[in-house]
Structure prediction request, 133 residues.
Amino acid sequence: MPNAISRISKLHEKIYQLQQENKRLRYEITKHPFEKTPVEDVVLKVSELTGVTPMEMRSKSRKREYVIARQVVMWIIYQTNKVTWTEIGKYFLRDHSTVIHSVKSVDNALFWPQSNEYKIIEKYDSQLLLGNN
Prediction:
């Protein structure tokens, strides 16, 4: 029994460490205060960075590059404008639960600097810092 308690304790410790690392990574990616950005501006900027057109982002297609671009836009809009899930979903012709899933998916992808989501957000962030709106 003490062995099981020790394992559970180690798991709790690991979960806490991962939560702290998540907070640190999110801070690193969004360390400067974003300006409030209208939805269209975010869509156009991500479109420019990914090569996925706004129409493709709003389409029902599940092509990987469309999905990643769409999810990144949803994440940026949610993080920068604090728009409701429903409002974001309406723009993309999606349900609010899809937006929640998208934001969580990007949050999880931000753990991995090699992920496409991380790279797109990093480019978006650096262009904002350089003033290349």
Observations:
- The chain is about 75% helix and 0% strand.
- The chain has a mean pLDDT of 84.
- Residues 1-31 form one domain.
- The CA atoms of residues 40 and 54 lie 9 Å apart.
